Every structure is written in structure tokens, then in C-alpha cells.
Automatic annotation (TrEMBL):
Descriptive protein name: Protein-S-isoprenylcysteine O-methyltransferase
EC number: 2.1.1.100
Membrane topology field: Multi-pass membrane protein
Enzyme class name: transferase
Keywords: Endoplasmic reticulum, Membrane, Methyltransferase, S-adenosyl-L-methionine, Transferase, Transmembrane, Transmembrane helix
One Pfam short name: ICMT
Bilayer-crossing regions: 50-70, 82-100, 112-129, 173-201
Cofactor requirements of the protein: Zn(2+)
Keyword Glycosyltransferase set for record: no
GO molecular function: protein C-terminal S-isoprenylcysteine carboxyl O-methyltransferase activity
Family named by the database record: Belongs to the class VI-like SAM-binding methyltransferase superfamily. Isoprenylcysteine carboxyl methyltransferase family.
Cofactor binding comment, as recorded: Divalent metal cations. Probably Zn(2+).
């Protein structure tokens, strides 16, 4: 009896919503919920892209401005913007992944918003480490590897952030680059950026340190034996 009573009552309530005055209210609520969710998705997507573009613009412009401030305009070229064909291709691929995943798996980008925030934190930390490296080293910091020794400006820097890692500029960029992809919640590009950037520095650091050992001899050997490179698994 109780089962039949509940079944009848449920039918009455359902019929009231479907055929009665409350049906427009239900449809209005569903439409409002759909619009709210849709606007939330759009806000999340716009915020992620805005953070990405601001991070990229700030990084490259600040690198160029600091290079001019430290080395002088006459000694700085557009190469100090640090924009290469391979870099542009990598960024285009990352944006392509982002838009494809937004189209096919839009809920994942919004659902795991905290991952995007973690990426933003990595971007900020990477920027701080790299800019501290530039400001600490001053004229000893260059975007191109020095193959000759300028005794007046090229000194071995071991203080400040260089007490903790030998190549804080590389360390900062490594963190920053991976952070940009985590900020977009791009799983494929995150792994790809980590591998590509790591491989780049794994080759660049030994090449650069060959000249540093030529310039500073045993002083650099002692420093390198006590301080890590700043890139994981790169001695």
C-alpha cells in the first residue's frame, strides 16, 4: 500500500511540473543553469588564455628591457627578445592542443582549474628566479654564450641566487616554460615542453661550462662541484 501511495504521489508531482504552471519555471531554471555553466566555462577559458599571453608578453619584453638596461641599446639586438622559429612553433602547437581540448573535452579544463593555478604559480616562480639571476649577474649575464673572456665585465658570480644553482637563468626558464603549459592544462604540451627544454639545456650547459672552465679554471671546478646546475639530472 505504501509503495502504491508513493508511486501515485510521484506521478501527481511529475504531472504538475510537466503539465501545470510550474513547467515554465523548471525550463527557466534549466536555461539559467545552462547559461551560468556556459559563462563559467567561457570565463575559465578566457582567463587561462589571458594569463598565458600576459606571461609570454611580460617574459620577452622584460628580457629585452633588462638587456638594454644592463648592456646598453647599441649592444642589444632583437635576438634578446628570445623568440626563435622553433619557439614560435612550440607555442603554436600548444595553443592548437588547447583549442582542440576545449572543443572536445571542455569540462576537463574547467573542472581542474586548480591545476591551472598551480601552473600560474610556476610561471611566477620561474620569472622570479630568472630575473634574480639577471640582476645578480649584471653584465656577466648574456643571452649568447661567451666564447671569449672579457675580464672587465665577465666575472664568476657565486653569490645571491648563484649560491644555490649554477645556472639560475636556465632553471627559471625551465620552470616557467613548463608552467605555461600546466597553466593551460595541456597534458601533451607539458610533457613535450619538459622534454624539449630539458634536452636543450642538457646540451647547452656542458658547452657553456667548457668555456667557463677555460676562463676561470680550478675556481669554477670547485664551484661546480659544490653547487648543482639547476636543471634536473644535468651535472
Amino acid at each position: 500500500m505504501l509503495h502504491r501511495f508513493l508511486l501515485l504521489r510521484s506521478r501527481e508531482v511529475f504531472g504538475l511540473f510537466i503539465g501545470g504552471r510550474r513547467w515554465p519555471m523548471v525550463m527557466s531554471f534549466v536555461k539559467h543553469l545552462r547559461d551560468t555553466v556556459g559563462s563559467t566555462y567561457h570565463f575559465v577559458f578566457q582567463l587561462q588564455l589571458l594569463q598565458m599571453f600576459l606571461a609570454i608578453i611580460f617574459f620577452h619584453i622584460s628580457e629585452f628591457i633588462l638587456a638594454i638596461a644592463i648592456h646598453g641599446r647599441s649592444n642589444v639586438s632583437c635576438r634578446s627578445l628570445l623568440i626563435s622559429k622553433n619557439y614560435l612553433l612550440a607555442m603554436i602547437c600548444s595553443l592548437l592542443e588547447y583549442f582542440l581540448e576545449v572543443y572536445f573535452f571542455s569540462g576537463l579544463k574547467e573542472q581542474y582549474w586548480w591545476i591551472s593555478d598551480f601552473g600560474l604559480v610556476m610561471v611566477v616562480i620561474g620569472e622570479i628566479i630568472r630575473k634574480m639571476a639577471i640582476l645578480t649577474a649584471g653584465q656577466a649575464f648574456t643571452h649568447l654564450i661567451k666564447t671569449y673572456h672579457d675580464e672587465e665585465h665577465h666575472q664568476l658570480v657565486t653569490h645571491g641566487v648563484y649560491r644555490f644553482v649554477r645556472h639560475p637563468g636556465y632553471c627559471g626558464f625551465f620552470i616557467w616554460s613548463i608552467g605555461t603549459q600546466i597553466m593551460l592544462c595541456n597534458p601533451i604540451s607539458t610533457i613535450a615542453f619538459a622534454i624539449i627544454v630539458w634536452n636543450f639545456f642538457a646540451k647547452r650547459i656542458p658547452y657553456e661550462e667548457y668555456f667557463l672552465r677555460q676562463f676561470f679554471g680550478s675556481e669554477y671546478d670547485e664551484y661546480a662541484s659544490q653547487v648543482p646546475s639547476g636543471i634536473p639530472f644535468v651535472e
